[in-house]
Design brief:
heterodimer; A: mainly alpha; Ammonium transporter fold; two-stranded antiparallel ribbon; about 65% helix; B: Alpha-Beta Plaits; four-stranded antiparallel β-sheet; elongated
C-alpha cells in the first residue's frame, strides 16, 4: 500500500529527535504531579524506602501495561470475527505509538519545566534523558517515590491507555492509516497538553480540581475523542435500519470477559500507582475503594440490565465493572468506602442507560467505550465534588464541586474540539471510513489481507 | 415436492430471507459453505508468504416446497441475492421423494407446508 512508503522517513526522524540532548527539564514536572506525592517528597526518605517505593511504582507500571491486553481482548470479543486482526493490530499499534510519542514529546509537554503560556501550554522539549548516570534522575533526588525512568514509563502507560479507548468505539469501519495518524497526533499533543493543566501543575490544578488517577485526564480525554470519531465516522452498515436498532453481536464472550478482568487487574496499578509511592495506608485504601466500586458497578449494571432487558446481559455486566472502575478513578484516594459503593453502583446503572441511549441517538459504539470512559468518567469526576467536598488535599486545596465541573467542561471543550478537528481533516483528506464492500467482507481481509481464525468457518452474513 | 438449494453470497442472506418471507416461504435451513464458480479468488499474506484463496465464503439455503411454490421460491431467492456481479450464486432444484414431520408423523405435502 502506498501509505507505508513514508513510514521509514518518519521513523528516521523520530530516531533523530529522540537523540536530542535533554536538559533534565522533565524532572520538575514529575513532582508537580499528584498532591499525595508532595507529602512523601518533603520527608527525607531512606534508601530502603526509596527502593520499596520504586519497586511498587514499577509493578504498577506493569499492571497498567496489562490493560492493553485487556483492551485488546475486550474489543476483540465484542466485535465480529472478520475484524479481529484489525482490532488487534490497532491495539498493537497504539501501545507503540503511545510509548514512542511520549518519549518524543508527551512526557515533557505533560510536565513542563518551563511554560510558553503559563499554566496552559508548556514548552515543546523533544526527547527524554538518554542514558543512566545522572543522580538527579536515577536516585531519590528526583522524587522520594520513584526515579525519573519510573516516572516516565508509568506515565507513558497512562498515555497509551487514553489512546486505546478510541479504538473500540471506531472499530469495524475505520480506515487503519487514518486511525493511526489520529492516535499519534492525539496522544502526542492533545493528551499531554490537557494533562499538564492538572498533573503538570497547570491552571486546573490551581483551581483546586481533583482527579486522582484520571477519570477526566485519561478516561474522558479518550472518551471525548471516541465520541468525536464516532460522530464523524457514522454507524456500522446495517446497525440502524429503517428506524430500528439491530444488534451486532460480539463473537467471543470469553475473550471479552478475560479482557475486563485483565483491565480490573490493571486498575490495581492504575489507581494503586497513582499514589506515587508505596505508602501502605494510601495504596491499600485506594485499592479497597477501587475494588468496591468495580464490584458495585457490576451489581448496578447487572440489576439494571436484568430489569430493562428482561434478562441479565453479560456484556452489560462487564461494562458495569469498568464503569465502576472509571467512576472511582477520580476520587479513590479521598472518598469513603460507603461513597465508593454508591459511586460504583450509580456508574453501573448509568452505563446501561448510556449504552442504550447512545444507540437510540444513532451513535454506534460497538464496545461501549463512550458510555464507560466518557459518561462514567464525567460521573466519577463530579462524584468527587459530591462525596468528598471539604477534604483538604495535601494542604494545596480543598475539594468542592465547582472545580470538578470546570475540569469536566474544560475536557469537553478542548478534547472534543481537538479530536473533531483532527478527524475532520483526516476525513476530507485521506478518508476515515472503509468502503462498504470492505466493511462487509471484513477489515481483516481489506486492511490486512489476513484472517484471524484461519481454518475455522466464521459467518460473514452480518 | 421439490428441494430448492441456493448458494448465495453471505451478506445477501438477510435480503434473501426477507424476499422468501414476502413470498410466504418461511421454512428453510442455512449452512455455512465454501465454494467457487466463475468468481476469482483473492490473496492473503502471512509473514511474507502469499496465500491464494479460491474457496470463497458462501451460504447455502435449503428450502423444501410444494410444486406450486417452486417458482415463487426461485424468484424470491433471485430477488434477494442478485447484484449483477459474478459470484451471485446458483440455485438447484431437485425432486423430493418424501418429507416427514417428526413431531406429528405427517407425510408429503402436509409436512412441507
Amino acid at each position: 500500500m502506498r501509505m507505508w512508503k513514508w513510514m521509514p522517513a518518519v521513523a528516521g526522524l523520530l530516531m533523530l529527535l529522540a537523540g536530542a540532548p535533554l536538559d533534565g527539564l522533565a524532572q520538575e514536572g514529575g513532582e508537580g504531579m499528584a498532591e499525595a506525592a508532595a507529602e512523601v517528597a518533603e520527608q527525607a526518605v531512606s534508601a530502603e524506602m526509596f527502593t520499596v517505593n520504586n519497586v511498587w511504582m514499577m509493578v504498577a507500571t506493569f499492571l497498567v501495561f496489562i490493560m492493553h491486553l485487556g483492551f485488546a481482548s475486550l474489543e476483540s470479543g465484542l466485535t465480529r470475527a472478520k475484524n479481529t486482526v484489525n482490532i488487534l493490530f490497532k491495539n498493537t499499534g497504539i501501545i507503540a505509538i503511545g510509548i514512542l510519542t511520549y518519549t518524543l514529546i508527551g512526557f515533557n509537554l505533560m510536565y513542563p519545566a518551563e511554560w510558553l503560556a503559563n499554566g496552559w501550554l508548556g514548552e515543546f522539549v523533544f526527547g527524554i534523558a538518554n542514558t543512566m548516570g545522572d543522580a538527579a534522575n536515577d536516585t531519590s533526588a528526583y522524587n522520594a517515590g520513584y526515579t525519573y525512568w519510573t516516572d516516565f514509563l508509568f506515565q507513558a502507560m497512562f498515555a497509551a491507555t487514553a489512546a486505546t479507548i478510541v479504538s473500540g468505539a471506531v472499530a469495524e469501519r475505520i480506515k487503519l492509516p487514518s486511525f493511526l495518524i489520529f492516535s499519534a497526533l492525539y496522544v502526542a499533543i492533545v493528551y499531554p497538553i490537557f494533562g499538564a493543566w492538572k498533573w503538570g501543575g497547570g491552571w486546573l490544578a490551581e483551581k483546586g480540581f481533583h482527579d486522582f488517577a484520571g477519570s477526566t485526564v485519561v478516561h474522558s480525554v479518550g472518551g471525548w475523542a471516541a465520541l468525536a470519531g464516532v460522530i464523524l465516522l457514522g454507524p456500522r452498515t446495517g446497525k440502524y435500519v429503517n428506524g430500528s436498532i439491530k444488534g451486532i453481536m460480539g463473537h467471543n464472550m470469553p475473550l471479552a470477559t478475560i479482557g475486563v478482568f485483565l483491565l480490573w487487574l490493571g486498575w490495581f496499578g492504575f489507581n494503586g500507582g497513582s499514589v506515587l509511592s508505596a505508602d501502605p495506608a494510601m495504596v491499600s485504601f485506594v485499592l479497597v475503594t477501587t475494588c468496591i466500586a468495580a464490584a458495585a458497578g457490576i451489581m448496578g449494571a447487572m440489576l439494571t440490565s436484568w430489569i430493562v432487558q428482561k434478562k441479565p446481559d453479560l456484556s452489560m455486566a462487564l461494562n458495569g465493572a469498568l464503569a465502576g472502575l472509571v467512576g472511582i478513578t477520580a476520587g479513590a484516594d479521598v472518598v469513603s468506602v460507603t461513597s465508593a459503593v454508591i459511586i460504583g453502583l450509580v456508574a453501573g446503572v448509568i452505563v446501561v442507560f448510556s449504552v442504550i441511549g447512545l444507540d437510540r441517538a444513532k451513535i454506534d459504539d460497538p464496545v461501549g467505550a463512550i458510555s464507560v470512559h466518557l459518561v462514567c468518567g464525567i460521573w466519577g469526576t463530579l462524584a468527587v465534588g459530591i462525596f468528598a467536598t471539604g477534604i483538604d488535599v495535601g494542604g494545596s486545596y480543598t475539594i468542592s464541586f465547582v472545580p470538578q465541573l470546570i475540569g469536566v467542561m474544560a475536557a469537553g471543550v478542548f478534547c472534543f474540539v481537538s479530536a473533531f478537528v483532527i478527524f475532520l481533516i483526516l476525513k476530507v483528506t485521506l478518508g476515515i471510513r472503509v468502503s462498504e464492500a470492505e466493511e462487509i467482507s471484513g477489515l481483516d481481509l481489506g486492511e490486512h489481507g489476513q484472517e484471524a481464525y484461519s481454518g475455522f468457518q466464521t459467518w460473514t452474513t452480518q | 415436492m421439490k428441494l430448492v438449494t441456493a448458494y448465495i453470497q453471505p451478506e445477501k442472506l438477510n435480503d434473501v430471507k426477507q424476499a422468501l418471507f414476502e413470498a410466504d416461504v418461511r421454512k428453510m435451513s442455512v449452512i455455512n459453505a465454501l465454494g467457487c464458480g466463475q468468481q476469482m479468488g483473492y490473496h492473503e499474506t502471512y509473514r511474507g508468504a502469499d496465500i491464494e484463496v479460491n474457496l470463497l465464503k458462501k451460504v447455502r439455503i435449503e428450502v423444501a416446497v410444494n410444486d406450486e411454490f417452486v417458482h415463487a421460491t426461485i424468484d424470491a431467492v433471485i430477488k434477494g441475492a442478485r447484484t449483477g456481479t459474478i459470484g451471485d450464486g446458483k440455485i438447484f432444484v431437485q425432486d423430493l421423494s418424501d418429507c416427514i414431520r417428526i413431531r406429528t408423523g405427517e407425510k408429503g405435502s402436509e409436512a412441507i407446508g
